[in-house]
Amino acid sequence: MEHPTTQPSQHSRRTFLFKLALLANGAVGAVLAVPILGYILGPVFKRGRSYEYWIPLGFLHQFPEGETRLAHFHNPDGSPADGQTRTLPCWVRHIKQNQFQVFAINCAHMGCPVHWFPQSKLFMCPCHGGVYYQDGARAAGPPPRGLFEYKYKIVGDRLMIRAGQLPTLATHASIAAPGSSPCQG
Amino acid sequence: MKTPAKILAAVLLSASVGCNHLPGKPGLRPETQRPDQTHDFATLYKTNCSACHGDNGKNGPALPLNNPVYLAWAGHDAIQGIVSNGVPHRLMPAFGPGAGGLLTAEQVEDIVNGMMKNWGKKDVLNGQNVPAYNPGSAGDPTQGQAVFQRNCASCHGADGKGVAGGPPHVTGSIVDPSYLALISSRGLRDIIVAGIPEQKMPDWRGDASGKPMTDREVTDVVAWLVSQRTPHPGTMVTPADKRKNQAAIAPVQSRGGR
Amino acid sequence: MSGLKQKGIAIYRWLDSRLGLAGPVIEAAEHPIPKSSASWWYVFGSAATVILMMQIVTGVLLALVYTPTARDAWNSLNFLNHGLTLGWFLRALHGWGSDFMVAIVLIHMTQVFMFGAYKFPRELTWILGVFLLLMTFGMAFTGQVLRFDQDAYWGIGIGASIMARVPFVGSKLVHLLLGGPIIGATTVSRFFALHVFVIPGILLAFVGLHVWMVLRLGINEWPMPGRLVRRSTYIQEYEAEIHKDGVPFVPDAGWTDAMFAAAIILAIMACAALFGPIGPTGPPDPTIIQTVPKPDVPFLWIYALLALLPPKLETPILLIVPVVVICVMLALPFFAGEGEKHWSRRPIAVLMVLVIAVSLGTLTVVSLNPPWSPEMTAWSADPVQPRFLRGRTPLERQGAIVFQEKQCRNCHALAGLGGKRGPDLASVATRLTEDELVRQVLQGGGNMPAYGSALSPAQTTALVAFLGTLNGNERPARDPSLELTHSNAAQKQQKF
Fold first, then answer.
1. Please, which contacts does B81-86 make with residues 24 or more away whose CB atoms are closer than 8 Å?
2. Residue contact C395–B22, C-beta within 8 A
3. Is residue C6 one of the residues assigned to a domain?
4. What is the mean pLDDT of each run of 10 residues along chain A (185 residues)?
5. Which residues in chain C land under pLDDT 70?
6. Which of A130, B204, C200, C440 could form a disulfide with A143 if both were Cys (CB 3.0 to 4.6 A apart)?
7. Looking at chain A, which residue has its C-alpha nearest residue C295?
8. Which chain B residues are Cβ-neighbours of A68 within 8 angstroms?
9. CA nearest to B82, candidates A134, C390, B91
10. What predicted TM-score, i.e. pTM, was given to this entire model?
11. Contacts with A120 from chain C: Cβ below 8 Å
12. What number does CATH give the domain A48-163?
């Protein structure tokens, strides 16, 4: 009996059909890849700004003039499975009257929580030794810039901040701290 | 080969049950507590107070807290107020939540109660005629100077500037303008009435005059000390010095050069 | 008894006639290797494989209880530690197994490098090995995150901050890493998928290929100085050596591998039994700011590097150096694929290993007691030792209170007690005069911030008065120029 491969016409048809089947799989795979990639890259496509909301921080009388106090806010986006990670702290400096500075808790170096000391008027970071002055400017250590600040506004007697993202050199929410270049990060 | 296998099985089985008593086994509760859940007085005191007030409430640069006279005299509420709110414009920080501190109200209570329990003696002031915790009225500096001469000058010098060559605890000035700027009249009253036992500063009963000080006398002495404050403590160049310096360099300036 | 034995053999024959695995497995086990390779120096690769098996088993058992959400992970870890019989031991095995795995993989890589086993024809084995090393570190990092406590929470923040430094796509990488805008449930769950599904899958595939190639290409012979590797002649020379001096892997060399594997597993069990599980530390609550986050031991060298790199160089170094290093490692068999294998003829290789080992070792050791961060509680928890207060005037004692209250102690120790960021001040008065102390405190300099805005003149006077007494019975520092221009009495008055 003749070996099937030595019959050119039947061999080329089967080969052609096999190649067609491969092409079909390739096409289906490409189409399937789109929603899968979309799912994986979902968090990336959402624009940074749309993660931010105006969030209430507390009443004005909770922040006496001339002092820097710790405040907490709840992240608006999220699921119940976030647990404690949904409540985030920040430092509110009441300069005078309606002038505030709201600093993110995250150090500008690597994001560790900075600790305010009212006696020496310094923020100190426990991780790699970053230190900032009371207006957020960098005082010492490895941070490349001053503390990240949230945009704020006063609505009635409440202080509100525009927040919602983890502040990093690429995702910091608003104004560059004094003494640093706005081009940085 | 049956018996050794049985023995081995028995050993392994009992080992797997007894495994639960090894040194690596963690204790009953999570190892790390939240900082606001710490209620142990020794830990709270050591972490927050011992740096200035000393280990075990003594031998620190600030007022010793293991003094039963001070604890009984000031009382629970006054001490709680100071721990919570600090002493404004002075060196004692505020630890309570309402004033921006990082302790909870409960933890402040734990500290105050712990001090009273460990170092206080309830009856130490019984039958004693102790001056009031707060001054009743403004004191008289002139009277105060006289009181100072009677009670304090033998150690602190006639003018309060210390006794040269004396023992360590009396050589320093207590009217140095910087010193008076840093200590409040509350602090002065505390030292005079409660004393600093480890520094050989007597309480209101043990002064040179031999008689316990009255409330009036304490108020007057504090008023006299406070009257020694200067408007620009710690600055090296007073306005008078400035005028003198200007007068000294004026001839050089008029010559137009060095 | 012989009836049971015969039944066993019958079952074995039934399986083998269908699977046909016995032949290849026995052939692989008994494959000839050079006699010089039957050595204790060659055991590390198989030890890594055995630890991998143990990690998979303990990992699966942990996954039966562990809850990969931000809300429940910490609770489930504590449940494993305190609520389940021997749950703590299982966690301890997995945690210590991870540290041992990193160590064994590094030792294995160093041994392979020093023995020249990356040279022809084993280049692909080496390349896969480099990826296996990276994946081992990936497993260590994702595993550390899954132990979702305070260290892990702020550790992810550090990872996100490093990602953020990549130009153009920084924010996208941050959101990809976190699975959203902040560290939350999406972050923990994607690290769980990475740690349990993605990386182990690739890891097992690569380990399979790696071992396949080791079997196929033969175990590296013990290097000889002067015996060069040449692509044209190596395979024939290797075959000749095996024919002349070959021994079967099992049992001649396999016994050392098996012994060492048993010893390593025993060591992991001993560490687990004696030292217990690693963490979890405090709950992953970002509002707890009294925290000092630190990574696990395999990452302490990065922790040190991040503290010590100068700020302006940090981003370029963090982004460029690892890529260059990995590319060099991957390209190694191509620019050094022939030539000498013995370390006595490869001075650069020996030097590189020594320099890298000493650097990483030093960075790790220094991180165990880090001197670069202030100690956050030293200002209120470390007392001024009584001997620094003896015989001081009231003003100097107030100065000691100022010294504590202004958090000086956070960076400066007194006779060893306190922070290590700045110099110990127990004898500062022998180095700085009063003027210099005033300037230093008000203006700072270098790594010290300026305290001028936080100190009143009275506080400065008191502080400098106290610091001026810290001369430890040595002669205090003095400014000779003052003596030349003023009398002693005037010197006391004129302090500026």
1. B83/B108, B83/B111, B83/B112, B84/B108
2. no
3. no
4. 56 90 96 92 74 92 94 88 93 94 96 96 95 95 94 94 91 52 39
5. 1, 482-496
6. A130
7. A127
8. 100
9. B91
10. 0.89
11. 406-408, 451, 454
12. 2.102.10.10
